[in-house]
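Data card: per-record layout.
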Amino acid sequence: MFRTASRPNRWSVFAVGCVAALGIAAAAVPAAAATATEADDRYTAQEIHTFLEDFYGEHGPGDFARKYGISPQLKEKVADNPESDVLLCAQNVPASIDIGPVTTAQSARVGWATVSTYWNGGSGKAEFTAYVDLDATRTIQLLDVDCGSGS
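The structure for this 151-residue chain is written out next.
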């Protein structure tokens, strides 16, 4: 007669190992996210600046940014103005784009920066203000664009 030794099933060991690894990774995510935003769940000026640089790129927002990077109210504004590019306050594609310093109004829960667009190989310049929601409990988005603020 043979004795049967009790051994754990290989899949059980594998599953326990995966769950442990996922638990460690999940525990690290909230800590990393907490350091990325201010203590009161608001995006920082640096995060907004980075978002605006990524959003506008060198020549204006791409299709992905236009679809997912703007608020529902701004999407309506864009749809209501098909004759111009509301997000660039223009009708054409600029030669280049720069994002100025970001100002945040914590009480208003909004941040903004001047966006400078350069035209005609850099000889022409236009400016407008881009507004971003500070609420870090939601995905960062462009709230509005004020085309009348340029110099």
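Known properties of this structure: Helices lie at 10-36, 45-56, 63-68, 72-80. The chain is about 35% helix and 25% strand.

See the next section for split statistics.
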